[in-house]
Amino acid sequence: MKIYTRQGDQGQTGLIGGKRIAKTDSLIEAYGAVDELSASLGVVRSALDEQGHRMTADLENIQHHLHTLCAELAGLQVSRENPRLEERHIQWLEKQCDAFQSELPELTYFILPGGIRPASLLHQSRTICRRAERRIFQAANQYPVSEIDGKYVNRLSDLLYLMARYLNDEADYREIRTDYDSGNIG
Q: What is the pLDDT of residue 81?
């Protein structure tokens, strides 16, 4: 089977079950953003694999969750029997958040995204996650999107933030406090 089908050349794409909708539809935007998020986490995972970091297993697990979310969104018009995220997935994220936060110094101010390369990539993934969240809630205005889906990506963005901070802390990188009136301008 060839990778190209030519079926999308007119701006339509297929959902699970065969229904075709516009590539600009809010549902396609939602699962496209989730797919982009998964790909960005793959880049982070690659950077961490080079170091043999224990966080790679968590990121792979998250990518599996995101694949399930994409399948769920792509199959909304077919059946609610598709793979689905469940409350247990959110509980896992919250458990991970608690674990990482317990190992970090308390933060009482905003920081600039950045730091070591994998942490910077996680900050970038966090912003993609926020976009995916907005797209999911936008699609929910038009489609029967599960409430769990929005909750999942909301918690995930929190976890990605904590993971970035954790990597920077582990590397003794000093987070940069946001300066709203920087004297460094021209």
A: 61
